[in-house]
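Milestone M4 deliverable, item 7.
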Amino acid sequence: MVIIKNLFQATRPSFLLITILGCLIGTASPDSHQASWHIQALSIMVAITVHAAANVMNDYFDHINGSDALNIDRIGPFTGGSRFIQNQTLSPQSIFYFAAVLALICISIGLYVCYETTWLLMPIGLMGIFIGWAYSAPPLELMSKGIFGEIAIAIAWSLIVIGFAALETHQFEMEAILLGLAYGLMVSNILLINQIPDIRADLTANKLTLATRYSKKGLQYWYTCIWLAAYLSQLSAVFYFSAPKISLITAVLMPAFLRCARQINDAALSREKLKTLIIHNIVSVHLYAALLCIALFI
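Output delivered:
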């Protein structure tokens, strides 16, 4: 039982809620609903398992490159990985094989869902698994390639919305693509902010994230451009396609994102301010996803 609990905790379950919200956004976005409840439940399991596998794989490769071991500035539980390898709770080999098992589980369930619904989901699932691997693993190691890490996250979480919309309609909806992009961009800003405490360790390990390449002023610019692009994508879905205008209720959170952008400079002053920034940003992105989901269901 202890090993099962440890493996479960190694997936960083507290971070999986944002993926569930993406599933619900995709389910709510189309006009027609065709998938049965058990297919939807299995599909949510696939999305969560892919996310969990990516988290575990990230822990393994951050152990290999040394960044987690070097990270004395981490702000747990938000940055620096699960620490299960560093604390010798699980061996690196156990983490690696666990990631492989999770990947096989999601592929197996995903194939069944495709068989029962539409094979249009196949390329979405394969791309999601590929990004989960390419983000952390050599030779691509997108997490070490500056903005490509954020792009990978934005695409991966966009695919969740697009995939669940296709599950319902058996086609790709432009509305869902734009809403998915908005959601994915917001999620990528969680990554951007969470990289800041790890800058020193990442630089030492030659893990060149976006945060390591720019000053705090530059990160303010990137953060602001990303959330503005998210709102622009959502506006396009509303005014050029069939997304409901009530979904623009998410605009009430714009002051929260402006505040987070301002806090990026202040966060350099103290560890406590940096932790506050991380929490504010995570809560704001989750509220954005929840409001969008509720508005679409209404």
